């Protein structure tokens, strides 16, 4: 996988999904595929419910499990206003009480809808398909609706802006700008006279979202925007933060939520004196520390007389008398049904004796196309094409083997090695004799070696490492060249670049450079470096050959006439003329013909030795696209070009799973058995090889004398958790600075330590 593919994942996913949509088979939320089923619903409690009071004070509208309900202000049986598989929530009565606005994904994305108060005549107000909307709120004049528009950058959740829409539709008017791409903004609310818009915003320091913020300090603030002149002022600040601004109908107070130590509390701000005071401390925990795309706390509302606040908490709806600082439960009952689809499930055997090896890295087909090589389980494997059996290429077990690449004649291979003790080296392997030659002996973090066309030199990348790897042996990083006979010293070609490669000549090396203009405007470019004096370090000239917004891999054909690239996980190829100017490439480029070669996805893209085929991989499958089947102008092209195949050649293998061979007893801890409510205070878990054979009281357990004893005193043992993940020392979610992408490349998708010291 190329070095910055992970970084553009958030941007690429949306584009990939939309690109694969079949216009003739549009996704219909309310007619989803799969086996239908109906489940009954009979509940008197709900989770994270938005509630709103009708202008006449007689009704409450609320959301529950994706549908909207209305009931009398005093409680009782709730009547469904919506009933479909689409997800509807965050309902708000119009100022005249005749309509309700809400958020729905019925059109395929989260948008703002309006319907009559009885649930009839539902219509979409907005039609966003990427920057989706939530938290709609009516302007007091009933002609406009403000909502939060969601923006994502390189991280998955992002930030927001407040936009204003006419109730009849339109693209909307932007009221404010997101603070950046990672700090949240939302929860709009109008003042009763329509002069102001209140909203909440994460105002913690820096531009990056951080977990585990201190809620005792200030995370969110409430701001007030004057719609007359556009000015914005911080309006509610201080320890515990402030979220979900909600003005009273009489204009005298602003209700909001503030954290008091660990307790989210309903507060009021007197808009005449500025005094802020708590009125009810029984709210559920707000989401100030987390990402809060749909709001930091569910929306609530005042009664028309401004004497009470109706709010969700503890699974119920409450009527808070803010003067008395008391709350009354507004009991509700929902008896309904839901149409659901059975979950798609696959049987997954637990600890099988063998497993399929599918993570094949740096897949590389020989120039003649007779064999393929890759790195798997830390070593190099080779398979004769098309029907050979994969086998280890070497027999050594002293170091791991990464980044294999064939010489142009297919007789030799260059790769890098790694051990935690000795770090890395660059090596050449003669495929007929098995002779292994170390080309770069000094320890370091090396990656992406490639032979020159004449086979006399090898280029590679030296990086800093970082995170889990030692900072030592990381001076003077960049792209290097070294003699392929193992007798010369490495010489640096350029300080900046990745994925070095050659085209037709050994006198020019091509490198990929990339970076960011801002968090969402990334770029990558292919640069040719002309070498003076053969493999000497001096670069006489640099020329930008191609540039792209989202390309994550470039591959030049051996004859230099074609350029293949990977963008948004898809593989493409285009002719490459020499123009002296950079070629802007992408799936929709119109300057030159371009062809997508894959059906689902592809990576490790490279050409055959005769430049007539493009190879790429997906998991444990190898795909090959012929240029004559991609372009009608290529000699030998058929009259009708065939479609790309969605199945390739299986090149993976099965591996015997490692299993411990011992009896182990974990004793003395509290064991949560999941056998009903059974908890064993002082228990023992007996494990034979890789299976639990007994669980019980330590006093009653017979433990073999030769068992490995593990003391769990003072600890609690629970059954294993599935589908958890860890954001650890690898820095997987970090934004990669422009100058440090090489370090990230070898870390995330190449060389890293075997042992993670952060687990000690």
Question: What keyword list fits this structure?
Answer:
3% helix, seven-stranded antiparallel β-sheet, disordered N terminus, globular, 760 residues
| Uncertain stretches | 1-23, 534-538, 731-748
Average pLDDT figure: 90
Provide the helix percentage.
under 10%
Percent of sequence in beta strands:
over 45%
Question: What is the rounded Rg?
Answer: 31 Å
Q: How would you classify the helix and strand content by structural class?
A: mainly beta
Main beta sheet strand tally, sense and closure: 7 strands, antiparallel
Shape: globular
In angstroms, what separates the terminal alpha carbons? 29 Å
| Strand elements, count | 58
Give the number of helices. Answer: 2
Strand order across the largest sheet: 33-34-35-36-37-38-39
Your description of this structure?
It is a single chain. By secondary structure, the protein is mainly β. The protein is 3% helix and 45% strand. The protein is built from 2 helices and 58 strands. The strands form 14 sheets. The chain has a 7-stranded antiparallel beta sheet. Strands 40-41-42-43-47 form a 5-stranded mixed beta sheet, with no helix packed on it. Strands 54, 55, 56, 57 and 58 form a 5-stranded mixed beta sheet that branches. A hairpin with a 5-residue loop joins strand 33 and strand 34 (412-419). The longest helix is centred in the N-terminal third of the chain and has 11 residues, at 9-19. The protein is globular, with a radius of gyration of 31 Å. Residues 1-23, 534-538 and 731-748 have low confidence and may be disordered.
